[in-house]
Write a structure and sequence with these properties.
It is a single chain. The chain has 15 helices and 20 strands. A hairpin with a 2-residue loop joins strand 5 and strand 6. The chain is globular and about 75 Å long. Strands 14-15-16-13-12-17-18 form a 7-stranded mixed sheet, sandwiched between helices. It has 2 domains: 269 residues, Aldehyde Dehydrogenase, Chain A, domain 1, CATH 3.40.605; 172 residues, Aldehyde Dehydrogenase, Chain A, domain 2. It is of the alpha/beta class. The chain starts with 28 loop residues before the first strand and ends in an 11-residue tail after the last strand.
Amino acid sequence: MTTATSAPTTVGRFTATSDAFATFADARHFIGGAWRDPISSKATLEVHNPRFGKAMARVHLGGADDVDAAVKAGTAAQHEWGEWPIRDRAHVLYRLRELMVKNIDELSWLVSHENGKIFSEARAEVEKGIECVEYGCSLPNIAAGNQLEVSRGVACEVVYAPLGVVAGVTPFNFPLMVPLWMLPQALVGGNAFVMKASERVPLSTMRLAEMLKEAGLPAGVFNLVQGGREVVEALCDHPQVKAFGFVGSTKVAKSVYGRASMAGKRALCLGGAKNHLFVVPDADVQVTAENVVASFTGCAGQRCMAASVLLAIGDVDHILKAVRDRAAKMVAGKDMGPVTTQAARERINGYIDAAEKAGARIVLDGRKASAEAGGYWVGPTIIDGCTADMPAAREEIFGPVLSVVRVPTLEKAFEIENANPYASSVYTTSGDVARRVMARVEAGMCGVNIGVPVPREPFGFGGWNDSCFGAGNITGWDGYRFWTRQRKITSKWALQRDQNWMS
């Protein structure tokens, strides 16, 4: 940790146009439309480029007093913002979209450098973020309240009112996309927003803050507080924060959901996953191999919807060979990026070591992968012969590791899957098998010949069981309803000629 320096007036652009190491501005608070140093804390952490394992910036860590300052700024700005017509609020997002499209390469390189994704993956993340913004732009056309004449001269209508100041906490694996799961619906809904990005990857949201300002968002409507656990807990506890969104690990999601709910605010907290892929003998070999490898190695396996366990049903050795052969051709640094920290690398390798000691076979070993010196590298790894109770088959590894559990029948696969509280996909050319799996699995997001079954907008992102604490999805229409509240208005403007109970 080092001593803080004074806050700048702008963070500026990220100028890197390749994988070559580059530095960026330190991460500070963005409160009331301006960059600020923490009120009392002088602590900082290094923000590492995982490809090289060295610092590209520092993050200045705040605390509860900074959260209070951000909430006060949001409270001061929200009333007027909430009175803007919904179309005017959405126009800010139109301008944000234009800025993101114009600067898509800059944003993609920034995501790549701070998170470790290869450029193509980082660009895909930015494009998905733009899609989320586009959904926010459409809300004036779909969020109009319903009105109905329910009796002679009596009308009932529903309007969606803002909650006030709301907050979100986002993870390290998608530093730009996940904030944009929350912001469009919350802002178009008329709220002020306080965000805490992961202290590992705080840089992309800094550029997002400046783009929102350039797009015309009034000062104080979006605030960014840097920090760790103290900031998260302060957001959960603050009495003026009316709703709390979270995306992260299951353990933390469950904890903060309970804390925020006990503080009287609505909360929607998404956790992790351990996704199971059903592979049956009739599956298309090429489609399955391409899809499975892309699923478990994409973003270095650091996504909750990545394939984690392959349920090999019956004789599928020909398919498993194709998966292994394809994964073995991947080149670290070119086809796949690093994991985000050295601690993550050691944890992932620990799961592989433990599975090997327990009798599983490492048919593809990524423990010694490397690219640039000093980076946090783990290559594609396939562990065959796992049992369902092994940690590698049961716990979320969050790395490029595929655990293969062999089962004789589809029914046995259902037993294993339904003891797992997460998402599921099936690889088959049989419509009947696909229908049976989709009907039987205990999962909220499912795929047929799709290894990462993430729905596109306007379909909402959100799982069942231990993947989601709270009601509904965090994106799509559910997201808008989460960040707003319904007001029902019943009105009468003329005398009724008949009588009923409403008279």
